[in-house]
Predict the structure.
Amino acid sequence: MNTNTISGTIFNTQKFSIHDGIGIRTLIFMKGCPLRCLWCSNPESQNPGIQIMDVKSNCIKCGKCAVLCDARAIDSNTLNIDRKLCRICGRCAASCFANAKKITGRTVSINDAMDIIEKDMIFYQNSGGGVTVGGGEPVMQAGFVSALLKECKGVNINTAVETCGFGTWKSLHSILEYTDQVFYDLKAMDPSLHMKLTGVDNHVILDNAAKAARLGKKMTFRIPLVPNCNDSRSNITETGSFIQELSQINRNISVELLAYHDLGKDKYRWLDMNYALHGTGKPDAASLQECKNILLAMELNVI
């Protein structure tokens, strides 16, 4: 099979990362996600298609974007985008030297992605690093992601994937087949709460988590700690119990608590989206430590 005929849509790449797997890594962010987490810091990852961001603070009011827009989707006075009229042709972004209108998302082939990844081979070799594919949700583009990871394994590049676990097991398994380390998000254990926080319940997610654990791979469950959302001690205890049970199957399991932050809230404005958690503060050190202590008391490997 000619892998270069397989394409995927990404919204970002990040080099020299040290937080998503061992060693120095290149991160590939896939576009599209089936969840709508209230705290999502990458709202541009949710829509699977190409989008236009409107960074109004960069705008110098030259009006060129409105003149060039054949769809008349940009108001000539405010320069705001009418998302219903916009055809996402990209002419406004291409002409905006102030970087106020800019495209998020691009289609790449396997070869394109490998060109990005292989430029840093020396760093992977010296640090034991490699590539981590996240998103968005990689399972939404399972064909591309599995083919990409297979190519990486073919040239001895360590691979990792970050997933919310929502999708068919067949799709997820096709990715994990070529994955050395799995970062698996667990938002909430109660199905109704999970639905409230993310837009979907967690039955498929928990079922896939158990199946993934049985593969015996190095696996880190990540728990985002979001005040007044999922930071109750009962949720942490229930999540820990679930992970504890899987740890009996797979001794390569660890847990990581991720403190909520609002660094992505400006992006919601740029995409004309609503940010639901305005005013929510970061969890304090005492709260983080208390949650960590709950997990440690279960003899889990908390990193």
User: Anything to note?
Assistant: The beta strands are 7-17, 25-30, 51-54, 101-104, 106-109, 130-134, 158-163, 181-185, 218-225, 253-259. The longest helix spans residues 233-247. The first strand starts at residue 7 and ends at 17.
